Structure formats: structure tokens, C-alpha cells
Amino acid sequence: MTASGWFPSISKSAGPLYLAIAKALESDIATGRLPAGYRLPPQRALAAQLGIDFTTVSRAYAEARRRGLIEGRVGQGTYVGARRHVGAPAPVTGIIDMSMNLPPRFDDPELAGRMWDGIAELQTSAGLDLLMRYQEAGGTSRDRAAGAHWLAPRFGEIAPGRLLVTPGAQGALLAMLGALVAPGETVCAEALTYPGFRAVAEHLRIRLAGVEMDEGGLIPEAFEGLCRAQAPKLLYLTPTLHNPTTATLSLDRRERIAAIARKHSVLIVEDDAYGALPAAQIAPFAMLAPDITYHIAGLAKSVAPALRIAYVVAPPARNMAHLSNAVRATAGMASPLTAAIATRWIENGIAQKVLAAVRLEARERQAIVAQTLPAELVQADPQGFHAWLRLPGHWNRADFAARLRSAGIGVVTSDAFAVSGRPPEAVRLGLGAAPSQNALAVGLRTVAELLGQQSAMSGMVV
Questions:
Q1: Which of 61, 135, 324, 341 is 20–30 Å from 261 (CA)?
Q2: What is the pTM of this model?
Q3: CB 133: neighbour CB atoms within 10 A?
Q4: CA dist., res. 166 & res. 332, Å (int)
Q5: Which residues face 165 on adjacent strands?
């Protein structure tokens, strides 16, 4: 301590300074040097004492708050919080939401800080024009080049002229279906498909037909039968880490489906929302059948949901103007600010580091699933962050979801995904929305316990 308050002893060569300050706070609280309720020096005062930038201290205090070490009091300052055992998992309270399929939140304050730094750097690199100017509907040449670079591990080299920047995958679907399919025409999709696609098709009054699936994904023979019977205009599918079943189409199935689509003059819309997650890549449809495939690669599932940006790769022989005009008609343009953030993160390597962190956290959360839930009921992929839970015969999906909801756990039943026919007795578990692995484990234990109960007994009131 000093006369002016707490003064940490830190080394400016021991990694990021804000983390060193947060670590010093944690250490002094653990040893009792900083008691609960102690008022910390103002951030600007501490920055002046240490001879460092104010933003570094601000980030250090923010990290300490994230760890539950300190608390801010409006108009009074920053204080040491109530003592807790360092290293003990935070108690799990409130709703454990497994209904949203978000990338899991990784615990890497330094990487999180670099993400924010990349955003702040736009002020000097892009200036006021980024905020005060419209841009072309399909994205600037720099944003398109960044998208091509991001897709290179799956595609190899892509000419930026084949690529459009769109306002998220949902915006891409709206523009694309509006440009390619007329009201009343038939589009086919996996029998269980992304609810957002169903919503767009309904909005545009497009008829949907479901294609039968098995554990390997869409069945090529069923697709060909539907082509013969209903002559669909387009096939929409999610070939990698399918939502909700987690299936990934093998290369053989992809080649057979592409051949069937070409034979029957059916366009393919490939939603590759999860395509960046697997370490080993299977060739996308846009490589196997580039002449008939529209590829959508969003960043929401692999980098950050707040980045409402998706890259669309179109068949090289088709005119890109109709798609660009469709984006302009439905959304005007992708947000230039969001596109610039995505471009910045891709160019400086942050996006790839975030992807690696998401992959690692997803594997660890999938390991909790494997340890907690019956293997015979779960379909999952270690590289994804959702799981498909088939219910035992004594449960129906509505009752199971209702019982979980009453226990503070949200899941999604198969009804949300079903295109046609009777939905299976199953629910999707999103593993990324839980704030921590501890919270996820608590939720999954509740799911496992409920699976073993009889439906009637689980709701008994005494």
C-alpha cells in the first residue's frame, strides 16, 4: 500500500500489463492484503502512478470484474468484492439456455482484448468515411478479398469477383431465394432443416419438400426420387455438422448428390455455417459442382454471433449482378462497420485465433456430453457445439422439454426443424450458450437424470 492507495508490483516484461494488474489484484485479495470493501484507486490515478496508459488499467479492472474480484458502485468508485475461494467455480444460477446454438465462450482474456483492439484500430485506419458513407451492396474489394482469404482452407484460391459480402447467412438466404425461386415453386431440403430457412421459404411463399435422412445425413436415393416426383428448383442443405442432427455428409454422398442435382437441373444452396469448425475439411459442394452451387459461409458460428456477415460464392458462369441487386433490394448492403471488423480480424489473424479457441472449447464441452449422457441416445460430433438427443420410448418431446423448462433448462424440440412428416422424438442441445463448462455440466446432469425417469413420475405433485 501507499499513502495514495493500492499500488501493485508488476513487471512490464511479464506479458500483457492488464493481465498482470488483474493477477496482482487476485493475489493481494487472496492473501488478505486487500480486504473486502477496500476502495481501489481511480483508474486514471493508478495509470499515472504506474506510468501506463489509462486504457490498460481500464481493461485490467474489467478483467478483475469478470473474475468476480471487484465491483463498481455508481458515483462511489471501485471496491474489492466479497471474499470467495479463488479457483472455485462460480455458482450456477438462473436459466441454463441450451436452446440457442451459439459458439461457446472461450476463457482467454488476452485474445478477447485483441479482438477489441482490432475494432479500436479501425478509428485510425478507416477514419470517418467508414461511418459516414454508403458502400456497394456486395462489399468492397478489400472485404471480398478478406472473405476469399477466410474461405481458402476450404476452397483454395477464389477470385474475389465470385464472392459477395452479405448481411449474415439469413440475409443471404432471403436475397438468394428471392432471386432464384418464384413463389409456388418447390425447394427441397433435409427432412430436418434450419428453422431460419423454413421461415424465409414461408415468407416468400415457396413450397418446401423434405428429403429423407439417416445418421449420415441426406440420402442421395431419396433426393433423386423427389427430383423425379416433384421437379424441385433448388436443394438447400447443411452438409457439415448438420443442424440439428450433427451429421456430416461423406465425400461419396456429396459427389452422388451433386451428380443427381446436375442430372435434374437442380441448383444447390450450400449453407456452410459450421464448415470452418472441422480440422479436416471435406470438399464443399461449391468445389464439387461449382457450376450449380451457391455457397454461404457465415461468421456467426465460427467467430462471433455479433458479426452479421456471410460470404456468398456463386457459380462462376452466372451473372453476380442479380444477387447483388437482391442484396440491395432486401437489405441495402451489409453493415460496412461490421464488414470492416471482420476484414480486420481476418487480415491480422485474430479470426483464426478465435476459431482455434472455439474449436478447443467445443471439444471440451463435447467431452462433458460424452461423460454425462447415454451414448446410445446422443448423436454428436466432437468438433461441433450442439448435440441431438433421441428420447427413450417412455418420453415424448413436448413433455420432456416442458419438464426441463420447469427445471430452468431450455432446449429445442424436433418440431422446429421438421419440414414434413412426423417429427422424431428428439431435442437439440446447444452447448455454447451455457456461460461456463460448469454450468453446462449442471444442465446436462439434469437432462441425464430426467431421461431415467418415467414421464408421469417426473411431473408428480405431492
A1: 324
A2: 0.79
A3: 8
A4: 10
A5: 311
